[in-house]
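Researcher: Structure prediction, please.
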Amino acid sequence: MSSSPSRALETFPNPAVTRDYTIRIEMPEFTCLCPKTGQPDFGHMTLEYIPDEVCVELKSLKLYIWSFRDEGHFHEAVTNRVLDDLITACQPRFARLTAKFNVRGGTYPTVTAEHRAAGWTVAPPVVLP
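Model: Predicted structure follows.
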């Protein structure tokens, strides 16, 4: 059992590589430090992605998210950093990371970052009668 954070994101083969399907992962325990005050920031991150060849392994994602706990980050920077690291590890067809942070100075910041692989387009929605 691991008892320390890690920046290593592990993957496993996508079991349905020929199909576009969405994986949604809620990460309600994201924490980092305010780079200005050093006080803790708490956030709820939601990752939605359409995998290509590989999927992210959840235990490694948990340890990765934990690795930010004692570091100072602006919300915008850390959201984009997490998405960039996931893109590097998984090369998804599509990915969206939404980070909703708890109140800071009377505001509730939400940052959303997206990625689309070159050449990938979303399939048109199916409308049922």
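Model: The radius of gyration is 16 Å.
Researcher: Thanks, that helps.
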